[in-house]
Specification:
Elements lengths: L1 E7 L9 E7 L4 E10 L5 H18 L8 H25 L7 E2 L1 E7 L2 E7 L3 E5 L4 E3 L6 H7 L5 H4 L21 E6 L5 E5 L1 H4 L4 H8 L5 H14 L6 E7 L6
Antiparallel strand pairs: 1-11, 2-3, 3-4, 3-5, 5-6, 6-9, 7-8, 7-10, 10-11
Helix pairs in contact: 1-2
C-alpha cells in the first residue's frame, strides 16, 4: 500500500490543530489516523495530539492475533478509543486551559486490502475508483439530524449556517461511541481520509478529478490542499491518500 500525508494550516488560522499519521508495523498491519482538534482556549491541538499519539503507541503494542479478524479489529478499536476518550476528558477537567477541548477521529486499520474504519465527528473517509467516488462515513453533525428528520435536504445541509456544529467528539464526555465501517480496496481504488478543511471546500467531483489525474500520489495530495486554499482556506487542511497501485510509489 502506498500513501501520502498532508497537513496545512490554511489561510485563516494561526495554529494547526489537526494531527495526522500513518503507522506501519513489522507485520502486515497498518494504521492511518486523523484527528481535528477543537475548543478549550486553543487546546484542540492538545486533544488531537493526545489521540494520535496514544493510538499509534497502542497499535504498535497490540497482539497480532487480535488484529487478524474484522471483529477483532473493531473490538480492539472500541476498547482503545474508549480509553483515550477517558484520558482526554479527565485531562481537560484537570487543566484549566484545556476545559471543553475535544477532537474528531478517523482511525483506519488496514490488513492487506481490508480496511476497518472507526469514525467520530465530521472528519471524513471517501473511496474513489476510476468510475466512481463515494463518501463512506456520515458526519455526527446537527445538520445530518435535520436531514434525517426530513427538515432540510442534503443540498440545504451543505450551506446551512450550523453545518460544522458536531454532536459527537472524542474527549468531550466521559463515554463515546464510534461508528464503524468495513471496506475492501481494489487495485485501482483510492481511500481519502480528510478533515473538514478539505471536505468543506471541495466537492466529491472536484476530489475525484484530482485523484484520477496521471500524477504521483504526493502531487495529488498537494493539489487537493492547494485547491482548498484557493477556495478560501478557512480551516486547517489535512489528509491521508492511500492506494494499492504499485505504480504510484
Amino acid at each position: 500500500m502506498n500513501f501520502t500525508v498532508e497537513s496545512d494550516v490554511g489561510l485563516k488560522r494561526s495554529e494547526n490543530e489537526d494531527r495526522v499519521a500513518f503507522c506501519e508495523r513489522p507485520d502486515k498491519y497498518k494504521l492511518a489516523v486523523l484527528a481535528d482538534g477543537m475548543g478549550g482556549h486553543n487546546a484542540g491541538d492538545v486533544a488531537s495530539e493526545m489521540a494520535i499519539t496514544a493510538l499509534q503507541r497502542a497499535f504498535l503494542q497490540a497482539e497480532a492475533a487480535i488484529l487478524s479478524t474484522e471483529d477483532g479489529r473493531q473490538q480492539w478499536l472500541k476498547g482503545i478509543i474508549s480509553q483515550i476518550n477517558e484520558d482526554i476528558y479527565h485531562y481537560s477537567l484537570s487543566h484549566e486551559g484545556c476545559k471543553g477541548m475535544g477532537t474528531t477521529l478517523i482511525a483506519v486499520m488496514i490488513d492487506g486490502a481490508n480496511c476497518t474504519i472507526a469514525h467520530i465527528g465530521d472528519s471524513r473517509v471517501y473511496h474513489f475508483t476510476t468510475e466512481d467516488g463515494e463518501l463512506i462515513t456520515r458526519d455526527h453533525s446537527y445538520v445530518n439530524v435535520l436531514v434525517d428528520n426530513g427538515e432540510i435536504s442534503e443540498e440545504e445541509a451543505q450551506h446551512h449556517p450550523q453545518k460544522n456544529f458536531i454532536l459527537r467528539a472524542l474527549g468531550t464526555e466521559l463515554t463515546i461511541q464510534a461508528d464503524f465501517y468495513s471496506l475492501e480496496m481494489q487495485e485501482d481504488s483510492y481511500l481519502l481520509i480528510c478533515s473538514d478543511g478539505l471536505s468543506d471546500k471541495l466537492s466529491l467531483y472536484e476530489m475525484a478529478a484530482i485523484i484520477t489525474l496521471p500524477l504521483a500520489l504526493q502531487e495529488k495530495g498537494q493539489k487537493l490542499v492547494q485547491l482548498a486554499n484557493e477556495l478560501g482556506g478557512d480551516d486547517n487542511i489535512s489528509l491521508i491518500l492511500l492506494t494499492l497501485k504499485g505504480k504510484e510509489v
